[in-house]
Write a structure and sequence with these properties.
With 316 residues, the chain is an alpha/beta fold. The chain is 45% helix and 15% strand. It has 2 domains: 167 residues, 3-Layer(aba) Sandwich (Rossmann fold); 135 residues, Rossmann fold (3-Layer(aba) Sandwich), CATH 3.40.50.
Length: 316
């Protein structure tokens, strides 16, 4: 691997089973163990989606496909049969579970990687999300001697990403009756962050609106809005309105159909499978609203293409 290109694909991570939830939650809380009430609530959410999230497995498959795609692009004459010894290897580093970002950077250094590109499986940049991944990787690179390290900071307007999301919107819109479409709202959403990011001039909210606006134009659906979801359980205010409040407001306004498109997420995990598919769907049902969600991108080849495009653009 000496002299080869390493790509550090970073994701949030998830516990592999119910027994790992406490350690995972403690890590998210910067070493502060959760109360029994908070822990039981989180365990209940995981139990509701089957006991564990598919996020880690999806991330590993995304990494495999990205490695294959980058090697095809970088060495087209060799095809994709050189994954282990080709020009590029994709490594997975998790923020809150093993393999942790710092440990993976150490592995890259041991294996002789001298040039590395980092990219987070979150298309929109924020000082409280993507920047944290970048800081952890940068500190580890300095510690372990990976000298040439650069990062994709945002990729929210990549054509391939928008193509994949556009198709999902069109497919989902086909599931509503013509009568429902007359009063149908598309609600784009992403993970909320503390509201103080607005005062910091953080680009996260604006980038999410850019993606949402581009998709609404592509599908020709002007009746849309943005809602936040999955806010942390802390005393400080978080960005809103929350999607549950959005549903309440839409019901009051006479809407009876809502299409949820979580543009801030690229994979199925707890915030999609529980917060939207169970919690938001239940709220909508109680309000008499026909609620559907666009399918997650997961291992869609266009998502892989968007990641590869972003890496190539950085290398160029």
């Amino acid at each position: 691997m000496k002299g080869a290109l390493g790509v550090l694909l970073m994701a949030y991570g998830t516990p592999a089973n119910l027994d790992e939830i406490e350690a995972y939650y403690t890590h998210i809380r910067h070493g502060r163990p959760p109360t029994k009430e908070l822990l039981d609530q989180l365990k209940g959410r995981y139990e509701a989606i089957g006991g564990c999230s598919p996020l880690n497995q999806i991330t590993r498959e995304q990494a495999r496909l990205l490695e294959e795609e980058l090697n095809r692009r970088l060495r087209p004459e060799r095809g994709s049969d050189v994954l282990s010894h080709g020009e590029c290897r994709v490594y997975v580093g998790m923020k809150h579970c093993s393999p942790f970002i710092a440990d993976v950077v150490a592995q890259m250094a041991r294996e002789g990687v001298t040039r590395c590109v980092g990219i987070v499986l979150a298309p929109h940049y924020s000082s409280m999300s993507v920047a944290v991944y970048i800081r952890e990787a940068t500190e580890a690179a300095a510690q372990y001697g990976v000298e040439d390290l650069s990062f994709v900071r945002q990729w929210h307007l990549q054509d391939a990403l928008l193509d994949a999301l556009q198709e999902r919107l069109k497919v989902s819109l086909g599931g509503y009756s013509e009568e429902e479409k007359e009063r149908l709202k598309i609600v784009f959403s992403a993970h909320s962050l503390p509201a103080r990011i607005v005062e910091l001039g953080d680009p996260y909210p604006a980038q999410l609106l850019e993606t949402s606006r581009a998709l609404a134009v592509r599908v020709g659906w002007p009746d849309w809005q943005f809602g936040w979801q999955s806010a942390g359980r802390t005393a400080e205010p978080w960005l809103g309105p929350d999607i549950l409040q959005v549903l309440d407001d839409l019901a009051t306004q006479g809407y009876r159909a809502v299409l949820s498109c979580p543009v801030g997420f690229v994979s199925d995990h707890l915030e999609v499978l529980y917060d939207l598919d169970i919690e938001a769907a239940a709220r909508a049902g109680g309000l008499g609203i026909h609620f559907e969600r666009t399918a997650s991108l997961n291992t869609d080849r266009r998502l892989i293409g968007a990641l590869a495009d972003a890496v190539e653009e950085l290398l160029a």
